[in-house]
Amino acid sequence: MPPAARSRVTASVDFDRDGVQHGFLRLFHSSHESAYGFIPIPIVVIRNGAGPTALLISGTHGDEYEGQVALCNLTKALTPARIKGRVIILTALNFPAAMAGRRVSPIDDVNLNRVFPGDPEGTVTRQIAYYIEHELIPRADLVCDLHSGGSSLMYVPSVLTKRVPDEAIFARQLAALQAFGSPHAYIAHSPPGQGADQTMSGGAFRMGVAAIGSELGGGGTVTPEALAIAERGVNNVLVHLGILPETDRIAPAPTRILDVGGHDYFVYASERGLFEPLVKLGAMVRAGQPAARIHFPETPWAPAVELPFVRDGFVLCQRIPGRTERGDCLFHLGTDAAG
């Protein structure tokens, strides 16, 4: 297998130096406004001698704020004296999207979590993906990529991991998921169309590194509940890795672990219209139970279209905007994991 091409992204920090470093990943990008400029992706490295490395990321999608706030708080609280090993923090990984508050980059309209392994010669978002997969993930013992539902979805705050074929990596992922200590967790089985190996977790698997993520809420906002789950979870993952001492562990609530399987777990809009949810987030539902109605205010005498759940499950996620297009995800379920 030929060696990976060298990334054009450069770092202003030294990953092997002890202490605290604040700097930027420089992604050079020539635009009308800035002929010789670079996109400054903020990075923090906190290191105290040899030990494990945690790669903590938020802002993969710019409109997902809970993780960004949690990692901003962690950046200001964590000191080298408290840790053993290294913590690498990226609070706004897709910097253009984070500054615009958008899921995708306003520069190339690309979703960062759908283009791994990226391309060192590609558009800016593809260059970010390539640098993360080939330069940062290999340095880590665990990747923790914090997400939420963003502008269009709301989740029951959850930690997650993906089912991978390597049992040793999957065991490490499950251990980290349980250490995170969210009241709800799920295992994604990556049906086609939901990212599969084009996500950051897919990149971690290619590099032989365990990865977990989150869906911490959403709706384009930050709730105290979701933020508390994120901050406790990241803290406990650092304890789990041995970066923070056991005395820093925050006692979590018991975790309910769910599976998210194929397309039968999802309810999609069949028509363009106005979405009326018929169940609440966090409810238990049955196959055949009405999930939603789609109304047509421009033709109010037209019958509403009713959409059912096609399997039993726990309502893990719900669409937020009332207007919907054919193909939008309205709900997705989880089912209690065996064992």
Characterise the protein shown here.
With 339 residues, this protein is of the alpha+beta class. The chain folds into 2 domains: 10-260, Zn peptidases (Aminopeptidase); 264-336, Beta Barrel (OB fold (Dihydrolipoamide Acetyltransferase, E2P)), CATH 2.40.50.100. It has helices spanning 66-77, 95-100, 124-136, 167-180, 200-206, 224-241, and strands at residues 10-11, 19-28, 38-48, 53-57, 85-90, 142-145, 153-155, 158-162, 184-188, 210-215, 256-260, 266-268, 273-277, 284-285, 290-295, 305-308, 313-319, 323-324, 329-336. α1 (66-77) links the parallel β4 and β5. α1 crosses α6 (224-241) and α4 packs across α6.
Major beta sheet summary: 15 strands, mixed
Order of helices and strands: EEEEHEHHEEEHEHEHEEEEEEEEE
Low-confidence stretches: none
Give the overall average pLDDT. Answer: 94
> Which superfamily, in CATH terms, is the homologous superfamily of the largest domain?
Zn peptidases
Radius of gyration, in Å, reads 20 Å
N-to-C CA distance: 39 Å
The 3D shape can be described as: globular
Instruction: Determine the number of helices (DSSP H or I, runs of at least 4 residues).
Output: 6
What proportion of the residues is helical, as a percent range?
10-25%
CATH topology (fold) name of the largest domain: Aminopeptidase
The CATH architecture of the largest domain comes to: 3-Layer(aba) Sandwich
Short description:
With 339 residues, this protein is α+β, with helices and mostly antiparallel strands. It has helices at 66-77, 95-100, 124-136, 167-180, 200-206, 224-241; strands spanning 10-11, 19-28, 38-48, 53-57, 85-90, 142-145, 153-155, 158-162, 184-188, 210-215, 256-260, 266-268, 273-277, 284-285, 290-295, 305-308, 313-319, 323-324, 329-336. The protein has two domains: 10-260, Aminopeptidase; 264-336, RNA polymerase II/Efflux pump adaptor protein, barrel-sandwich hybrid domain (OB fold (Dihydrolipoamide Acetyltransferase, E2P), Beta Barrel), CATH 2.40.50.100.
